[in-house]
Write a structure and sequence with these properties.
2 copies of one chain form a homodimer. Chain A is of the alpha/beta class. Chain A has helices spanning 11-22, 34-40, 55-60, 77-89, 102-110, 119-132, 162-165, 167-171, 206-213; strands at 3-7, 26-31, 46-49, 68-71, 94-98, 115-117, 136-142, 146-152, 174-180, 183-186, 199-205. Chain A folds into 2 domains: 3-119, 3-Layer(aba) Sandwich (Rossmann fold); 130-213, Alpha-Beta Plaits, CATH 3.30.70.1450. In chain A, strands 3-2-1-4-5-6 form a 6-stranded parallel beta sheet, sandwiched between helices. Chain A starts with a strand and ends with a helix. The interface between A and B is large, with 57 and 57 residues. The complex binds adenosine-5'-triphosphate (2 copies). One adenosine-5'-triphosphate (ATP) binds next to helix 1 and strand 2 of chain A.
């Protein structure tokens, strides 16, 4: 799909719209406020002022030509909800809606939102995760039970070979990549000596990764 | 560090506090509003109502015993700014502050915030990235120039061996792991046949990863 519609040009909505445009997509921005539409119209393909709870108004801008619409109306939950319902009534294939809390999230999913995002809640969770594992740089989840973790090499492993660290037996993690300055060592050999400043990319079960991430 | 203080118990602040507690840390929550403090006091170690722009009030709760304080006061930028300044004046080692936009971010960094987060902006960017690469499940950045991407195997590669896909030459990406149902194949062999439903973990430069992510 080459085009997206974003309804509600608050901070979250504007960010979605701008980043999609930056990735080469066509974005239609919709907001109740003409001033907001005016100030934003230079940033995206097209922006129109209308009340998105109004199905007729949505039809006028050909909303059904979009298969994904993002609803980013925050404070006014009733409008957020009514817009989501209107979009599903019009047959929009994928409606992604923002919610402020879990109660709102449940209601939106019940009325047909395909996905509900809580930006502040997610951002808080991410920050907490980063603060909890200070050596950790980034993490991705691989299925429900495993993770790939990027972290600075723990001090206690520096100057050992990978074989000596015996990570798979001691911690249950596999080293996929060692990044050393600009060099990437993929599937590094057993005699690879870990150095100060190395960045490791490791794979393991979530539990093993959590333990390994706290190594000093 | 086993303890954190979170000032401003809005949605973002509460989420940071709750997730840190869930990870076993001690959290002191601070908010201007006694009702908010009251309702939140069951969720975290301790919560107190005070005006965080007041250095004397901060000293009374022994704020200097924390080496990381998160400032999550959103709407009232002046309070957000004054609290950040007060904390740095009191010698707090790491102050992480929330900002609503880039202008605020610049000002906060200038007065000494060690890190500034824009939750709604970041969440919008993440959603846009996900929508831009639909096969992509997760991504982590490895240095400034490389990424590790997790994605569903593109249809066009199914039934080919890794050798046949020739990914390193055609797309510049290396397959680190193939996840097949619950099995993880690390550093899979060249004769590994890709199957429908496989999940790939690949490494490459940001550019190569971006192209590969759009394969059908
Ligand atoms: N019925 C409606 N139709 C179209 N746009 C609407 C409607 N109701 C509200 N909006 C718009 O939605 C936008 C976002 O709403 P609001 O600012 O309340 O959300 P927010 O959650 O505070 O935003 P953010 O946190 O993303 O900055 C506003 O610009 C507002 O004009
Ligand atoms: N001077 C202050 N001292 C302590 N707490 C404060 C002060 N000023 C504001 N707060 C608190 O900060 C909290 C968060 O502020 P606010 O709700 O404006 O932010 P927000 O950005 O809308 O929050 P979120 O988006 O995270 O829900 C409020 O609960 C408010 O009581």
């Amino acid at each position: 799909p080459r085009e997206f519609a974003v309804i509600g040009l608050g901070r979250f909505g504007r960010s979605v719209a701008e980043h999609l445009e930056a990735n080469g997509y066509t974005v239609l921005g919709i907001d109740l406020s003409p001033q907001i539409v005016q100030s934003f119209s230079t940033h995206i393909t097209k922006a129109v002022a209308l009340d998105a709870t109004n199905e007729e108004a949505l039809k006028l801008v050909d909303i059904t030509s979009f298969d994904t619409v993002i609803v980013a109306i925050g404070t006014d939950f009733e409008s957020n909800l009514m817009t989501t319902v209107a979009l599903k009534n019009l047959g929009i294939k994928r409606v992604i809606t923002k919610a402020l809390n879990r109660r709102q999230q449940e209601i939106l999913l019940r009325v047909g939102a395909d996905r509900v995002i809580r930006p502040e809640f997610d951002a808080g969770k991410r920050l907490a995760e980063e603060l909890s594992a200070p050596a950790m740089l980034e993490k991705l989840h691989l299925g429900a039970e495993h993770s790939v973790l990027e972290l600075r090499v723990p001090k206690s492993l520096v100057w050992q070979t990978l074989a000596q660290t015996d990570l798979r037996n001691r911690y249950g993690v596999t080293v996929l990549v060692v990044k050393r300055a600009d060099k990437l060592l993929v599937s590094p050999p057993a005699d690879c000596i870990l150095q100060q400043g190395d960045i490791l990319v490791v794979l393991g079960s979530n539990e093993d990764i959590a333990h390994f991430a706290r190594l000093e």
